[in-house]
Every structure is written in structure tokens, then in C-alpha cells.
Amino acid sequence: QVQLVESGGGLVQAGGSLRLPCAAPGRSFSAYVIGWFRQAPGKEREFVAAITGRRTNTYYEDSVKGRFTISRDNSKNTVFLQMNSLKPEDTAVYYCKQQGVWGQGTQVTVSS
Fold it and tell me: Are the CB atoms for 50 and 33 separated by under 8 Å?
């Protein structure tokens, strides 16, 4: 079964940056789309960004376009979410997902 492990979360001031890796060790990674989602307190989990397999097409939720970048390193079975110009409303637990499997999440907190 797929295992996904997120890291890189933390506390950052508004306008700052964070880079979230999601590792998928020991599995076939490169052929499948992988996505990032987030869930803020009291809200539904929402889509943030996704990247397809070998063609690496990318997709973003409107509020993060131009600020967040998703990329993948298939040699390391890892996908990255680079988050720039962070806003307090980006505060959430961030999850990666592939083939119906979720990681455990990593907390991102943006202070104003």
C-alpha cells in the first residue's frame, strides 16, 4: 500500500515562504498524479494543487495560483509544494494524496 509522508510545515509570518515535501518511499510513484490538499479548522478539506505523472501537467486552486508551485522528483519519489507570499488564510493542515491514500498531514500556520 502507498505510504505518504509530509513534512516541512511550521509557523511563518505573512509574506513568508515554506516548502513542503511529500515522500512516497518504496512504491511506484512516477506514473500517477499526486495532489496537495488542505483543511483549515472548521472547514472542509479542499484541493490546493496537483501534478500528473510523467507529463507533469500542473493544476492549482485559484487562490494559490501565482504563489504556490507544485513539482515532483520521481528519482526521489517526492513531490514538493513551494508556498510563497503566504497569507493568514493559508493556515491549515496540508495533506498529500495519491491513489486514494492520504498522508498524515503537516501543520502550516501563517501569522499576520
Answer: yes
